[in-house]
């Protein structure tokens, strides 16, 4: 079976690096084509005892046991290839985002080949998120599954809870390592192996496959034995990385740590970086919807000094394969019962509005549960994908209106989060869950309404500004 890979971009933020003390992990899910319908759903708690998970994608079969908790997810709208839950938050306020597609170098793959029927992106969230109560538990559970069943892909997976943020990377068929992101730092992950130096004596901040170090020694994989640089031992550092991957890390660090001078094609851009200002959800939204804005590399030509060659030089974050973008935010300044928010955005990220969903809920809005083969504005996914079709041909005509729309929706979303947080005080149990569910529906309905109004206006403008008009006398 030929695996289909997605080329995503992720950012992880520690609680002291964020503007309000939240932990945040976020990722753009960019599919293997321009069309990959997505939904946003809630999976109820249940007893998994006796269930055998069978992947429609890889064929792996994994017996499950025990009670699993409720969790949100953004699965595929079409079930032909399986679940692909991708990212969500469970009832213990543990967040998981899976996966960031990465690459392992040929030498490592020669000694530990990928496993054709292993655990892959389609299955990871379902096999892990319902069964964990901390981010650290998530790392341990996924790591154990990979060592036992193997994986057919090289991936990066993010975990967080209210206290810790972790990033796990798989290399080869059975090996992995994970690093805790320092509280005062952030990390950007652009489809390359990211983790650098591993300290095997620091169990508080590193976890790894049981034989990772001995395996590297046995097969002479480490080119610098005085260090254990995970990226350089197991990852790739080729020309494609320099133009497809590292520029995205360069741009993110340019935004949040502007005093650091780096080249977009550098193979040594650090994984862990300290921000020069605290990072907000709005900052993450901007980064994950960016296209080298304001630089000569912007494919939309927002810099007067850029030429066509420069504008096509690097892979942009915003591109036509954008499907679903989520910020998984666990707040620390409110009660745990309503601390978790999943910001969801469908479609082309540079045009769409992000919707904040509290995750202690029993259901999601109807239009977020619909994502079929056919285009329909009854689906939140298709509504936002259609928006991109209107905007792209007339980008420079519409972009200021689009930016205004996104800003207005962002302000509205912030107001809603504040209102719902205050109104939730004193509510508990089923009353709280029902309240948060109802309020999520109202938030989504308003942003859907605004998106449809925007599209209606853009259609009218397009009809009135067509290049294919002709009046009597135009040829005189």
Distinctive features:
19% strand, 476 residues, 19 strands, 30% helix, single chain, alpha+beta, 6-stranded antiparallel beta sheet, 7-stranded antiparallel beta sheet, Penicillin V Acylase, Chain A
Give a description of the structure:
- By secondary structure, the chain is α+β, with helices and mostly antiparallel strands.
- The protein has one domain (9-456): Penicillin V Acylase, Chain A.
- 30% of the residues lie in helices and 19% in strands.
- The protein is built from twelve helices and 19 strands.
- It has helices spanning 106-111, 124-128, 135-149, 212-218, 230-234, 239-244, 246-256, 281-288, 308-311, 380-391, 395-423, 429-464, and strands at residues 9-13, 23-30, 41-43, 46-47, 52-54, 61-63, 67-68, 71-73, 87-89, 95-102, 154-160, 165-171, 175-180, 186-189, 206-208, 272-273, 322-330, 340-346, 355-358.
- It has a seven-stranded antiparallel beta sheet.
- Strand 12 and strand 13 form a beta hairpin.
- Helix 10 runs parallel beside helix 12 and helix 11 runs antiparallel to helix 12.
- The chain starts with 8 loop residues before the first strand and ends in a 12-residue tail after the last helix.
- The mean pLDDT is 95.
């Amino acid at each position: 079976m030929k695996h289909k890979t997605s080329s995503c971009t992720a950012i992880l933020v520690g609680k002291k690096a964020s503007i309000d003390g939240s932990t945040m992990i976020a990722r753009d899910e960019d599919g293997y084509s321009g069309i990959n319908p997505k939904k946003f759903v809630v999976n109820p708690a249940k007893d998994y005892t006796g269930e055998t998970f069978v992947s429609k994608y890889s064929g792996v079969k994994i017996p499950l046991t025990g009670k699993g908790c409720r969790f949100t997810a953004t699965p595929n709208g079409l079930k032909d290839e399986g679940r692909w839950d991708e990212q969500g938050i469970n009832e213990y306020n543990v967040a998981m985002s899976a996966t960031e597609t990465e690459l392992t170098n040929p030498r490592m793959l020669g000694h530990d080949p990928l496993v054709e029927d292993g655990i892959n992106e389609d299955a990871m969230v379902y096999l892990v998120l319902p069964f964990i109560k901390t981010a650290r538990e998530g790392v341990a559970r996924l790591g154990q599954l990979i060592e036992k069943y193997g994986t057919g892909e090289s991936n990066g997976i993010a975990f967080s809870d209210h206290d810790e943020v972790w990033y796990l990377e798989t290399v080869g068929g059975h090996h992995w390592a994970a690093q805790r992101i320092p509280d005062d730092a952030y990390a950007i992950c652009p489809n390359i192996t990211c983790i650098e130096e591993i300290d095997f004596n620091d169990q508080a901040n590193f976890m790894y496959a049981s034989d990772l170090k001995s395996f590297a020694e046995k097969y002479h994989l480490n080119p610098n034995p005085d260090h254990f640089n995970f990226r350089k031992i197991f990852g790739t550092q080729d020309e494609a990385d320099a133009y497809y991957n590292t520029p995205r890390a360069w741009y993110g660090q340019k935004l949040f740590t502007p005093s650091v001078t780096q080249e977009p094609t550098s193979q040594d851009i650090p994984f862990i970086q300290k921000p020069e200002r605290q990072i907000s959800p709005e900052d993450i939204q901007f980064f994950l919807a960016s296209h080298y804005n304001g630089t000569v590399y912007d494919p939309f030509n927002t810099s007067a000094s850029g030429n066509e060659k420069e504008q096509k030089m690097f892979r942009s974050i915003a591109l036509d394969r954008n499907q679903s973008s989520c910020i998984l935010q666990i707040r620390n300044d409110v009660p745990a019962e309503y601390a978790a928010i999943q910001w969801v955005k469908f479609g082309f990220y540079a045009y769409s509005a992000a919707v904040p969903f509290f995750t202690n809920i029993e259901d999601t809005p109807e239009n977020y549960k619909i994502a079929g083969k056919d285009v329909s504005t009854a689906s939140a996914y298709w509504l936002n994908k259609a928006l991109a079709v209107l905007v792209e041909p007339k980008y420079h005509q519409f972009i200021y209106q689009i930016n205004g729309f996104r800003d207005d929706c962002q302000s509205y979303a912030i107001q809603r989060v504040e209102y719902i947080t205050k109104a939730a005080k004193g509510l508990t149990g089923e009353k709280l869950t029902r309240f948060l569910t109802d309020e999520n529906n109202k938030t989504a309905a308003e942003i859907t309404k605004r998106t449809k109004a925007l599209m209606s206006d853009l259609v009218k403008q397009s009809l009135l500004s067509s290049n294919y008009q002709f009046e009597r006398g135009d040829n005189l």
